[in-house]
Automatic annotation (TrEMBL):
Keyword annotations: Glycoprotein, Ion channel, Ion transport, Ligand-gated ion channel, Membrane, Receptor, Transmembrane, Transmembrane helix, Transport
Name used for this protein in its record: Ionotropic glutamate receptor C-terminal domain-containing protein
Location in or out of the cell: Membrane
Membrane topology, as annotated: Multi-pass membrane protein
Classification via SMART domains: PBPe
GO cellular component: AMPA glutamate receptor complex; dendritic spine; plasma membrane; postsynaptic density membrane
An individual GO BP term: modulation of chemical synaptic transmission
Main location: membrane
UniProt keyword Transmembrane helix, yes or no: yes
Molecular function via GO: AMPA glutamate receptor activity; transmitter-gated monoatomic ion channel activity involved in regulation of postsynaptic membrane potential
Pfam families attached to this UniProt entry: Lig_chan (PF00060), Lig_chan-Glu_bd (PF10613)
InterPro entries recorded: Glu/Gly-bd, Ionotropic_Glu_rcpt, Iontro_rcpt_C
Transmembrane segments: 249-270, 323-340
């Protein structure tokens, strides 16, 4: 028997002895593989549990925390002061991406988060002074997210005594994150969060079912209204060529081409058909004035008069001319009907947008089209819907014009102004108000809300208390200074990064593997 086996045998014998003789007050084996101490009742004492965290086959090599049964014994053994007075459990600040700080991702989404010179870069022609150098004492970003993180830092460091060092980074492509079912991978911020390159997403991120399978959310803390951004009726009819708006340029070109071709064909019929006035005048069956009825000039006037529901004194004499006139009259009747039916919204300031109070009202109206910003919180809300009015709304957005879904909020605002009351942008109330209150102040946010959109708080073991402490008191001050609030999303993906860049982790389970080491 080796020395190690003999030591273990002596330890097991000692444990049996401790249980066999209750008068033994204490037994401590320090020469064994690990220190083992028992009290008078034979219970294990003076032990320490190191806690590690990991996922599936991955396991972190650094300790997440430590639990000691006897703080005084631990301090004597380790010759240091216990880190968490008042509790036998000490958990290190959980940081997945970086060891020295919390890595937070966000997107430039006014008014949630903006660069300090956002307005200057957006409308450079309105401010002609020379741009000053960046003051290092001022924050690079402004908005609700930076203000909220400052208040959260105070809660952690002043109220909880925990370090809250973070680094805020903006994602370049401006994508919240979408799951590709073909590749089973995320993109945007969700990919960085899932892969372990970030700890937190601080943005107006909508909680969807697929995202809940990969990251953790708290219950809903902020509920916003999804409203319509429309052009104010007082600014709708300011263009001098409003009567041409019912048809686009292609429709007008088609009508002019049809008029030109129909005029030429009618003129040829009047010249070549032997039963027309010109041939009859040559044969002496009609007067010379009747023979000049369908010259090129008179034919043009005749075709135009049919379009205006008028007519000349003489109509075509041949059957071919009469049939062609009937077809042209039917074409002009259809075109005039389409023009008049589309002209009404352009001649009257429609107030349908003011009357929309629900998705049902929005879906049944036909006065204007509506769309969303691609990959925005509102886009995710309707895109993930499968039933009810939300699905009807999404089908109408998706099956309508290709430009109903705009690439960003700036393009959406331009489309609302350009379409002159025929397009409305669906988005969260505070985002729309930020755009509506900008110069030239010709936009309006509808009074009634279409639906609700919910932003949840994120949570982690050490962060949940800080967020709960912030919400009732300091959060109100931040809400007063900035129009809206973001959602934070903490990743529960605690596995290390993929070796050699190979993406092996595709299992959506959230199992935490805890390795317990008794020392």
């Amino acid at each position: 028997m080796t020395s190690t086996a003999a030591t273990r045998a002596r330890g097991d014998a000692a444990i049996k002895t401790a249980h066999s003789y209750p008068f033994s007050t204490r037994l401590s084996l320090s020469k064994a593989a690990a220190e083992k101490s028992f009290d008078a009742n034979g219970n294990r004492v003076n032990y320490t549990i190191d806690i590690f965290v990991g996922k599936n086959q991955y396991l972190s090599t650094s300790k997440l925390g430590v639990f000691t049964q006897n703080i005084d014994h631990w301090e004597k053994k380790e010759r240091s002061t216990w880190m968490n007075r008042g509790s036998r459990l000490y958990m290190k600040p959980y940081r997945m991406a970086e060891a020295t700080h919390i890595h937070i991702l966000s997107i430039e989404e006014p008014p949630f988060l903006m660069h300090r010179d956002y307005e200057l870069t957006r409308t450079p022609n309105r401010r002609r002074f020379r741009r000053q150098e960046v003051n290092p004492d001022l924050d690079l970003y402004i908005g609700y997210v930076p203000s909220l993180l400052k208040e959260l830092k105070k809660v952690f460091e002043e109220d909880m005594g925990l370090d809250f060092t973070y680094r805020l980074e903006l994602l370049g492509e401006g994508n919240y994150g979408k799951y590709d079912k073909s590749t089973l991978e995320w993109d945007g911020m969700m990919r960085d969060l899932y892969d372990g390159d970030a700890d937190v997403i601080a943005a107006a991120l909508t909680k969807t079912k697929i995202r809940e399978d990969y990251v953790d959310f708290t219950s809903t803390w902020y509920t916003g209204d999804v409203k319509l951004l429309i052009k104010h009726p007082s600014f709708v009819w300011e263009y001098p060529f409003v009567p041409v708006f019912p048809f686009n340029i292609y429709a007008w070109l088609t009508n002019f081409l049809a008029f030109f071709v129909a005029t030429i064909l009618m003129w040829l019929i009047s010249r070549l058909n032997q039963n027309e006035w010109r041939a009859m005048s040559i044969r002496g069956e009609a007067t010379e004035d009747e023979g000049q009825t369908f010259t090129l000039y008179n034919t043009t006037y005749y075709m135009l008069s049919i379009w205006a529901f008028q007519g000349l004194k003489k109509s075509p004499h041949s059957y071919s001319g009469k049939v062609f006139t009937a077809f042209w009259f039917a074409y002009t009747l259809i075109m005039v009907w389409l023009y008049v039916s589309n002209l009404t919204p352009f001649l009257m300031a429609s107030k349908v947008g003011f009357k929309v109070r629900s998705l049902h009202d929005l879906n049944k109206q036909e006065q204007f089209g509506y769309g969303v910003v691609r990959n925005s919180p509102t886009f995710d809300l309707f895109h993930e819907s499968t039933t009810g009015d939300k699905r009807i709304t999404w089908d109408d957005i998706q099956t309508g014009d290709e430009d109903k879904i705009v690439q960003d909020s700036i393009e959406g605002v331009r489309k609302v102004r350009r379409d002159n009351g025929r397009y409305a942008l669906l988005s969260e109330k505070k985002m729309l108000e930020y755009e509506a209150y900008r110069w030239p102040c010709d936009l309006f946010v509808s009074g009634g809300y279409v639906t609700k959109i919910k932003f949840p708080w994120p949570f982690s073991r050490d962060h949940h208390f800080g967020i709960s402490s912030l919400t009732p008191s300091r959060n109100s001050r931040v809400m007063a200074s900035w129009p809206t609030s973001p959602a934070l999303v903490f990743s529960n993906r605690i596995a290390p990064k993929h070796p050699f860049g190979k993406r092996k982790r595709r299992n959506p389970s959230q199992e935490l593997i805890w390795r317990v080491s008794i020392t």
